Amino acid sequence: MAESTLQSPVPVVAKKKASESAVWRVAKYMSLRLITMAFTVVVGLYLTILIANMGGYVDEIRRGDIRETIQQQVMNDAGLKNLTGDQRVQLITERVANEEERLGLNRPFAIRSVAFLKDALTLNLGFAEFMNADNGSRSVRTIVLERLPSTLVLFGTTNIILFFATLYAALALSRHYGSWIDRFIVATSPMSATPAWFYGIFLIVIFASVLQILPFGGMVDVPPPDNRIEYGLSMLKHMILPTLAIALNQVTFAIYNNRTFFLIYSSEDYVEMAKAKGLTSRDVERKYILRPTLPTNITNFAFLLIGVWGGAPIFEGVFNWPGLGRTTLIAAGLFDTPVIVGTTVIFAYLLAITVFLLDFVYALVDPRVKIGNESSSQ
């Protein structure tokens, strides 16, 4: 009796040590992942700054524009016509130097790029160099927040509906493997290799130019309707062609991809065992086919949501949609580095946070997934 009493605390101590080991393992894994993600974000943002500024070449372009603008101002100023040539050159040089100092162009690009990186990491997005918000503000944050709702309305609504619709269609199609509609989906799945904006051009030509039943582009009619119901109906009308273009680009491949996953898992031995036990087809699909595909579907949905925030620059440009993607496209054409960096910062942070959280979501929905070195330690 005494011997058993002395030995009883041993399992409790072992469990406590195992629990502490698990907490330490998860904490270590989270720390390493955070460090990796932070390093990736820093490198990605710095490369974006270098590319957006073309390694400092954009600064040379801006210096040339500043000198040309000031020269024209001095030459056209009637009050400065009495100055000699040397005095004008000196005045132009002084004004150019002051303007370059005001814009920070008097510092080397290497130093300025590090300052850009620091501001980007702290979400101090600064002010645009050429672009304005509708209220006249040059704040990059204001520009982004002003354009973001338009992108979310189009891409968020369309992509989320298509995601769940194609998932349901793929599950239904997996029950009819080899049918004519299954062969049709397989044959048309390469259509997704063509970008959505390419389909958009043809849709505009057919429905806007030839048939003249839908608008060429934009978000609402011009001038915008004052009534909210009419405004909403006008927006829906303008969303038809972009939505159809996105659908043509995504639907068949998404159905084919998901249908393939469902077919793979439906042929597993445990599915046959579940059917032999007499489970209904709905229970078999929900517990033994859909559940193993949850990590893949969750990943696709997570990256879909990230893509919604960024929009599609060329696509929005084709449809003249006033979203964040079109803003990025315009900023690239104007060499507006703060706007380009600002939109990239948001995307980079969203991507890093999503990838970090996905590991833990996988462990929750799929017991086969282990965090850190859990599998090796057991």
List keywords for this structure.
mainly alpha; 378 residues; 16 helices; 0% strand; MetI-like fold
What does this structure look like?
Helices cover 75% and strands 0% of the residues. It is mainly alpha-helical and 378 residues long. Helix 2 (9-52) crosses helix 5 (109-121) and helix 3 packs across helix 4 (85-103). The longest helix has 44 residues, at 9-52.
Topology, element by element:
Layout: H1 2-7, H2 9-52, H3 57-76, H4 85-103, H5 109-121, H6 140-174, H7 180-188, H8 196-210, H9 228-266, H10 269-276, H11 281-290, H12 294-310, H13 313-318, H14 324-334, H15 337-365, H16 374-377
Helix pairs in contact: 2-5, 2-15, 3-4, 6-9, 6-12, 6-15, 7-9, 8-9, 10-11, 12-15, 14-15
